Structures are given as structure tokens and as C-alpha cells.
Amino acid sequence: MRVPLHELVRTSIRERILSGELAAGAALPSEAELCAQFGASRGPVRQAISALNAEGLIETSQGKVPTVSRAPLAQSIDDFFSFSSWVRTIGREPGQRTIEIALRRPEKLVAARLGIAAAENAVELLRVRFIDGQAAMLERTAFVASVGRFLFDFDTDSGSLFEYLIGRGVPLDRGEHVIDAVAADETDADLLAVGVGTPLLRVRRLTSSNDGEVLEYSDDRYRPDRAELIVHNTRSHATQRPFVARQISQPGGTR
């Protein structure tokens, strides 16, 4: 089966970007150069550029040569408890905006994850997380009521929920993470400024104490063009280190 010319152009440029041959911020060859290189008319070249732009690999603007997008910021799996610390570590500015915080009966799935009865309340939050002012992740978090009640005394726009709760003595010690992809729903689309149905990187986390008491469940959805996840592992006979929340070095630290 013959591969369409625009796909050949797209694949070739894509490989050059992913290999680093075309670095972040670099200008793509001009349309005329690409036409000559691939023996193509402007139509297939423009179709390839449009597809690369839709992937988030390049940035285009009227009257300017397309450039390679800045590489997505990588978040280590060990940093899932510390979005703000991770962002600051890489020299960027974190931020958050709380859309909602409420004490209520959660959906059945959330109640089941938290291990509470259907009639029990939980504290649920919806927050947008930012990197340099750009929405990068939508955070849906639910805490058992005995833990979440502390958050009504905390400015949830000021920083880390986990560091604040740890400072209050909450044993947020262990995390289990499930990573998959999900299509953006209407809430995701509105708050992350993407189209409905856009693929998002989802991380579902269940947090417990070292004694096994479940304290928190979250559903975090990342824009994959603004953040990616890295899993580090090693060949070792040592016992696997559990996910542990960072300890606060000074009161009032931010996540």
C-alpha cells in the first residue's frame, strides 16, 4: 500500500524532531525547501505541517516560519506528591487555582476507592495546576472527611495540599499510581483550554498511611504537550522504596 506523500513528509520531520536533530525553538525548513527535498507540491507539505502542529510538535503563526515546540516538561514518578516542588526544581513557576472545594457524598467509584460507605461524606477539590501561567494539569482530589476537614482552614490557592496536611500530622505516606490516557470531557476542555475529546495523560493515585489506611484518591489529567511522566527503575534485589510524601523543611512550604 502506497503511503501518502504528506505522511512521508510528516514522518520524516517528526523523526528529526524526536531525535533532537531539530531542537526546540529551531525553525523548520521553508515550504520551498521541503517541496524540493521531497519532490512535493505545497499542498502535501502544508498538510504535514498542519498535522505536526496538531500533535504539538511545532508552533505556527501567521507570517512566520514554523518552529519546533519546546519539549514537554518531564515529571518524575517520584514527584507525584510534589507538583510545585517539581516545577520549581526545573526553574519554572508553579501555580494553582481552586475551582471548587466541598464536603459531600462522593460518587460511588470515589467512595469505593476511599473505602467509605455510600452515605459518608468526603472532601472533594477541583484545581487547575499551572506552569508559568499555562494550565498543565487538572486535579480532582478526594480526601476522607477526617483528613479533608483541615483544608477548610487552608488557602488551597496558596500551594501544596500534601505539605500542609503533613504539617498537620496527616500520615500521607504511600502512593499507588495508575497511568493511562483519557479523552477530555467538557470540564477538562474548559479548564485546560483543549477541545472535547483531546487525549490527556491521566494519573489516578490512591494515598494511604504506612498502616494501610486509605486517606486520599485523585484523578489528575495532564496536557501531554505541557508535561510528561518518567518512570525510573533499576535492577536491584533491594526492597522497592515506597512512594513517600516530602517532609516540610520549613512551615508554610508549598507543594
What does this structure look like?
It is a single chain. With 255 residues, this protein is an alpha+beta fold. It has 2 domains: 5-68, Arc Repressor Mutant, subunit A (Orthogonal Bundle), CATH 1.10.10; 73-230, Chorismate lyase-like (Chorismate lyase). Helices cover 27% and strands 29% of the residues. It contains 8 helices and 10 strands. It has a 6-stranded antiparallel beta sheet. It has a two-stranded antiparallel ribbon with strand order 1-2. A hairpin with a 5-residue loop joins strand 8 (199-208) and strand 9 (214-222). Helix 1 packs across helix 3. The radius of gyration is 22 Å and the shape is elongated. It starts with a helix and ends in a 25-residue tail after the last strand.
